[in-house]
Amino acid sequence: MQGSATPIPEPDPSLRDAVELGFPSSVAELARLVRIPSVSWDGFDRGPVLQSAEAVADLARAIGIFEDVAVLVEPGPDGQAGQPAVLATRAARNGRPTVLLYAHHDVQPPGDPTLWESSPFEPTVRGDRLYGRGASDDKAGVETHLAALRALAAARGDFDLGVVLFVEGEEEFGSRSLPALLAAHRDRLDADVIIVADSDNWSTDVPALTVSLRGNAAFHVTVSTLGHALHSGSFGGAAPDAMLAAIRLLATLWNEDGSVAVPGLAAYTGTEAPGYPAEDFARDAALLDGVRPIGRGELNAQRWFEPSITVTGIDAPTVQNASNTLLPSVRVRVSLRVAPGQTADEAFDAVSAHLMAAAPLGAHVEITDPDLGEAFLIDSSGWAAAEATAALAEGWGSAVVQQGVGGSIPFVAELAREFPAAQILVTGVEDPDTRAHSPNESQHLGVLKRAILGEALFLDRMNRRS
Predict the structure, then answer these.
(1) Which domains does the chain possess?
(2) How high is the mean pLDDT of the chain?
(3) β-strand partners of 209
(4) Which of 112, 134, 151, 161 is a good FRET partner for 313, with 20 to 30 A between their CA atoms?
């Protein structure tokens, strides 16, 4: 909800000037990071992810405040080495708290290069935005932490605040080695406050603290009907091909209005969502003329507090390679967003049971490769949230909105389990037109500067707190 109408103080001039003076360097550093194609997914070269981690480590060392900076690799649940993370630490002095600053340096695959207006790994400024894969999600989060620390050091000298900079290398691929990282380096990661810079803001002018996150359950569904492919002219109209069965099966996941139709999937009703005018939603979601939103009720409630199901991939012949063939098997990737208050296991079981029961025409259905992450409700009643709200308001010149987010950051629940005494704050550098994960992802440079100043002001407040 919107903050109060209390007048917002001007930011500390020494910190403001330090951010302003260092901002050209911040943009240049972000551009250098964007040039590194650090895609963490299986099937992509691991070399650029290591290069990206080493680049972040070098930038952390250059600040001159850390006692130790290391690039770490731990195994995932399959025993294979995870992607490299960066851990930099300095101990608190004189009773000051310790703040852990989290971001991730890996990025999504670029997708179809023809859909980009400029090369995805060639950072390009157009207007007030820097375009490139990872420019916002989440290399701008990395740069926000680095630049805020530089500004604090420039304005305050040798400060007493304890700082842990933790920049993960496989968030976009499920953070599979994160539990091993947390377990192996728990003492060095322990902190009083954790800032996760991996969310978005209400607008380019209004900052937000994220207080709820949906969980996720992504998995493969394979639908099979035939022992082998058949000529569609000889057998079409009598033999049920897998594409027909898959389409009919997937259609059972939604009601006519597009809301989910799976028994057992729950919505969260503990908080009301602020209004999202239909015309603003149509603009932000890039709806074509005449296209209507799906579902029913308040749009923000649908995005933040209700489950959703998306088919994100289909293994099938391309149109160019299509032949007159009945397909024996079709595989799809299903992405389920889980409302706060329901576990990912419960939601996955509900969808799995629905799909198995709804198989049409006697089709064989196999569900494999589940990737689950928990939803999370963040307690915003503590002193850290109050300090962050004040600091962000000063840095942005606007009251802070507490918002839910429809996306998932499953490791937040893991951080809360591992460090139950820490206060967790979820901030970010994105805005409604960032297009994270999509072609033409970009970072609004005004948002980046305000995010850096807001975080620097927060760290300064922590440096004065005992």
Answers:
(1) 13-213+375-463 (3.40.630.10), 216-264+302-371 (3.30.70.360)
(2) 95
(3) 402
(4) 134
Assess contact for 315 and 209: CB atoms under 8 A.
Answer: no
Q: Give the residue numbers annotated as catalytic, written as ranges.
A: 106, 171
| Residues 147-196 pLDDT 10s | 999 999 999 999 999 999 999 999 998 888 999 999 999 999 999 999 99
Which residue has 């639908």 as its token pair? 223
Question: Could you read off the pLDDT of 80-90 as tens digits, one per residue?
Answer: 899 999 999 99
pLDDT of the residue at 450 = 98
Per-residue 3-state assignment (H helix, E strand, C coil) for the chain: CCCCCCCCCCCCHHHHHHHHHHHHHHHHHHHHHHCCCCECCCCCCCHHHHHHHHHHHHHHHHHCCCCEEEEECCECCCCCECCCEEEEEECCCCCCCEEEEEEECCECCCCCHHHCCCCCCCCEEECCEEECCCCCCCHHHHHHHHHHHHHHHHHHCCCCCEEEEEEECCHHHCCCCHHHHHHHCHHHHCCCEEEEEEEECCCCCCCEEEEEECEEEEEEEEEECCCCCEEHHHHCCCCCCHHHHHHHHHHCCECCCCCECCCCCCCCCCCCCCCCCHHHHHHHCCCCCCCCCCCCCCHHHHHHHCCEEEEEEEECCCCCCCCCEECCEEEEEEEEEECCCCCHHHHHHHHHHHHHHCCHHHCEEEEEEEEEECCEECCCCCHHHHHHHHHHHHHHCCCCEEEEECCCCCHHHHHHHHCCCCEEEEEEEECCCCCCCCCCCEEEHHHHHHHHHHHHHHHHHHHCCC
Look at residue 5 in the predicted model and tell me its pLDDT. Answer: 61
The yes-or-no verdict on residue 410 having pLDDT over 90 is no
C-alpha of 29 from chain center: 21
Task: Write down the pTM of the prediction.
Answer: 0.89
Give 238-287 pLDDT, tens digit per residue.
999 999 999 999 999 999 999 999 999 999 998 889 899 999 999 989 99
Contact 457, 391 (CB under 8 A): yes
What is the rounded distance in angstroms from the CA atom of residue 235 to the CA atom of residue 250?
A: 24
Percent of the chain with pLDDT over 70: 99
Q: Cis ω on the peptide bond leading into residue 138 (within 30° of 0)?
A: yes
- The predicted pLDDT at position 86 comes to 98
Using the predicted structure, report yes or no on whether residue 128 has a pLDDT greater than 70: yes
